[in-house]
């Protein structure tokens, strides 16, 4: 007597086997899909609201507020070797820049070099005379209207 031929075991599942089997248990609870959809709708609403904020000019008010708060914090970061005259001139130049921003004398997109200079000057918690002078120069360049 001969042995029957061995039946090889299939390693891949055929689509017909998959679709004819019972429905598997869900991996995530039902509320997870609803939460993700709700989060995406909320994100779209925030982006849409941000676009409206940018188009109405209220963004310049927000930038003015943020610069004012940053300058208030920066006043306590000056090192001892920054002379009071330099401090006053930096503050005056930044105030002139903020005034120009409030009066729409230049687009708020031109603030990027000033914001980077302020970030670099204050990231270590102190403002040196060189950083103060550079900050004043950048603010003066942006705040001066093009002729």
Secondary-structure-based class equals mainly alpha
State the order of secondary-structure elements, H for helix, E for strand.
HHHHHH
Number of helical regions: 6
Mean pLDDT value: 85
> Roughly what fraction of the amino acids lie in strands?
under 5%
Tell me the distance between the termini. Answer: 106 Å
Low-confidence stretches: none
Outline the fold blueprint.
Elements: H1 15-20, H2 30-56, H3 58-74, H4 84-102, H5 112-122, H6 129-143
What brief labels describe this structure?
147 residues, mainly alpha, 65% helix, elongated
Description:
Helix content is 65%, strand content 0%. α4 packs parallel to α6 and α5 runs antiparallel to α6. The termini are far apart.
Give the gist of this structure.
This protein has helices at 15-20, 30-56, 58-74, 84-102, 112-122, 129-143.
């Amino acid at each position: 007597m001969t042995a029957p031929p061995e039946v090889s075991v299939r390693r891949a599942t055929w689509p017909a086997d998959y679709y004819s089997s019972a429905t598997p248990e869900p991996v995530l609870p039902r509320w997870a899909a609803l939460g993700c959809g709700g989060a995406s709708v909320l994100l779209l609403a925030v982006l849409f609201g941000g676009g409206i904020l940018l188009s109405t000019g209220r963004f310049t008010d927000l930038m003015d507020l943020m610069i004012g708060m940053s300058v208030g914090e920066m006043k306590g970061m000056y090192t001892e070797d920054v002379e009071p005259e330099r401090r006053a001139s930096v503050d005056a130049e930044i105030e002139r820049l903020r005034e120009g921003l409030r009066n729409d004398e230049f687009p708020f997109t031109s603030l990027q070099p000033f914001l980077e200079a302020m970030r670099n000057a204050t990231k270590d918690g102190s403002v040196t005379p060189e950083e103060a002078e550079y900050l004043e120069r950048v603010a003066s360049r942006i705040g001066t209207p093009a002729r």
